[in-house]
Design goal:
- This is Cinnamyl alcohol dehydrogenase.
- Belongs to the zinc-containing alcohol dehydrogenase family.
- One of its GO terms (molecular function) is oxidoreductase activity, acting on the CH-OH group of donors, NAD or NADP as acceptor.
- It is a single chain.
- With 121 residues, the protein is an alpha+beta fold.
- It has a domain of 80 residues: Alpha-Beta Complex (Quinone Oxidoreductase, Chain A, domain 1).
- It contains two helices and seven strands, in the order E-E-E-H-E-E-E-E-H.
- A hairpin with a 5-residue loop joins strand 5 and strand 6.
- The longest helix is centred in the last third of the chain and has 20 residues.
């Protein structure tokens, strides 16, 4: 689900990225930005979110995720990858890392010194 890519073009409203940046993109590439979920940073509940694959952009073009020649991503749904990290190091952090971190963070388990176990099947 996670995609690591180089920014090849930016829109006039983009402030977070420049051409040549390496970014990570998760499962969502866009949302309406106007509903309650969007206004409270829980865009995964937006009824008009755009998935990175098996969906369509607002212009009707299909999304193809990491299999696409290129993809359009709202800057809110991309993150700059630190210099020196290879795509092989980053990719597991995008899907599995966020999947694990999100509930731990939600339930307040992100303080230093805590221990936990993650079981993957």
């Amino acid at each position: 689900h996670g995609v690591v890519a180089e920014v090849i073009e930016v829109g006039s409203s983009v402030s977070k990225f420049k051409v040549g940046d390496i970014v990570g993109v998760g499962l969502i590439v866009g949302s309406c930005r106007n509903c309650n979920p969007c206004n409270t940073d829980i865009e995964q509940y937006c009824k008009n979110k755009i998935w990175s694959y098996n969906d369509v952009y607002t212009d009707g073009t299909p999304t193809q995720g990491g299999f696409a020649q290129s993809m359009v991503v709202d800057q809110k749904f991309a993150m700059k990858i630190p210099d020196g990290m290879s795509p092989e190091q980053v990719a597991p952090l995008l899907c599995a890392g966020v999947t694990v971190y999100s509930p731990l963070s939600h339930f307040g388990l992100k303080q230093s010194g805590l221990s936990g176990g993650i079981l993957g099947l």
